[in-house]
Amino acid sequence: MPWKVVAFETTPNPNAIKCVLDRPIAAIPRSYRAPGDGADDEIAAALFAIEGVRNLLFLHDWVTVGKSPDAPWPAIKRAVKRELGRLE
Hints:
single chain, about 90 residues, alpha+beta, 5-stranded antiparallel beta sheet, 2 helices, about 25% helix
């Protein structure tokens, strides 16, 4: 069953956003500090394929997405929704 993004929440870091999901995605923390780090994780690989995504943290029912400073949030949010909505 694909994940649905319920909400995007800001964080103290302007280049990171918390994506709250409709169900759990990770029982224990999974952190990827660079795109190559998530190559063996299907979800991380799909999110890192989004232009501008630089790091990820998965825990419980949320994902924190970090981006490069010049990447626009609207495009990243749309792509995150699309990718999580197609993965199971």
